[in-house]
Amino acid sequence: MRLDLHIRRRPDSSPLVLVIRWGVPLAFIIFGVVMIVLAHGHLTGVQDNASESNVFTTSTFTDRDSMLSTIGVASIVIALMILLLSWMLRLNSDEAGDRAKEDEAREQFRRTGHWPED
Fold this sequence. Notes:
Layout: H1 15-39, H2 64-112
Helix pairs in contact: 1-2
């Protein structure tokens, strides 16, 4: 009886892949935090007393600090989206390898009539 141990190892990633996978999101997060710090977390129309604040009836003018905060938050959200997409693509590539092994086993079954040993 032959026992084959298949240990799945991820191939070493190239520097370009690592930069895209981790560097780009990190740059977006750093940029977003800098924008929020520069804006001091300011939002137009937000007041301490909730009964007096109504952001929908105040003027539609957006000041610089509000724009910086908005850009900062959007940048952080973009970084999270890139990380999530990268994770989903890695999951998909792992499943593609499993499907290829399954197809090889089915082909061997068609040729020999026996399923390969696990």
